[in-house]
Amino acid sequence: MPPNPQNLKPFTKGDPRIWRGGRPKSFPALQELAQQIAHEKARSGDAPVIVDGHAVTVAEIVLRQWFQSKDFRKQQAAMEIAFGKVPTKVEVAGDDTQPLKIVVEYVNKRAHDDGQDTDS
């Protein structure tokens, strides 16, 4: 099948083939569907999945699996969902004439010699 000759013409001002909106930032219909599925009660066959006396959602099942996974990436994703992404940007400013000195200080909060850490 030969190409459409209209598509072989260069764009002109006001050409209806120009897509001014750009790439969509997200696919809202897919995101909405995923959220609906995540909020559904999880089922095993015809029975709801019960954990600690309550029926759990699909999202809860996924998070429980991720937290218990041996795959670090799943554990990290679950932690980031729970507590937020860990900042990765590090900025260092200093005098260019002096070498950079980094000091890491660890404070051990042991109050006793029995090896137990304390919170205070």
Q: What attributes does this structure have?
A:
120 residues, mainly alpha, flat
Total helical elements: 3
Query: Mean of the pLDDT scores?
Result: 83
Give the % helix: 25-40%
The SSE string, one letter per element, is HEEEEHH
How does the major sheet shape up? 2 strands, antiparallel
Written account of the structure:
With 120 residues, the protein is mostly helical. The chain has a domain at 43-82. It is 29% helix and 7% strand. It is built from three helices and four strands, in the order H-E-E-E-E-H-H. It has a two-stranded antiparallel sheet with strand order 1-2. The radius of gyration is 28 Å and the shape is flat. The N and C termini lie far apart (78 Å).
SSE layout:
Blueprint lengths: L27 H12 L3 E2 L2 E2 L1 E2 L2 E2 L2 H11 L3 H12 L37
Give a short overview.
Helices cover 29% and strands 7% of the residues. With 120 residues, the protein is mainly α.
